Amino acid sequence: xxxxxxxxxxxxxxxxxxxxxxxxxxxxxxxxxxxxxxxxxxxxxxxxxxxxxxxxxxxxxxxxxxxxxxxxxxxxxxxxxxxxxxxxxxxxxxxxxxxxxxxxxxxxxxxxxxxxxxxxxxxxxxxxxxxxxxxxxxxxxxxxxxxxxxxxxxxxxxxxxxxxxx
Length: 166
Known about the structure:
It is built from seven helices and eight strands; from the N terminus they run βαβααβααβαβαβββ. The chain is of the alpha/beta class and 166 residues long.
């Protein structure tokens, strides 16, 4: 299934565990350094100052390097802890790897968001990137929050509507 960003609520409602998708459009990337900062900005009402559009957003749990992008483990405390805040702020797709806690699965269900996984094939994903820019937190280097424009980035729905492949 082709998924364009920003992701519409109706599209997320149709997704089920095991669906293969190809994501196209702007997405954000973040991991241990940037995601807690992004959550603080949301909680402190500072998101408008960053100029980020989270409604319908995809956040890929990765850093961005000249070698490419690849998923980092999503159940790290800083990353999994960001999922509830970001989902409530409008993020509809979290993309990474690894099992998430039952509490996080419940939040995803309550907010209508999903979790997708993608294989760790960093060098191949560089072919799916059309453009990139640092969107926030440039001081974090590769781990800054980036906005990538991707085309047909492959993923598999791992958690949707309270169901999980884990």
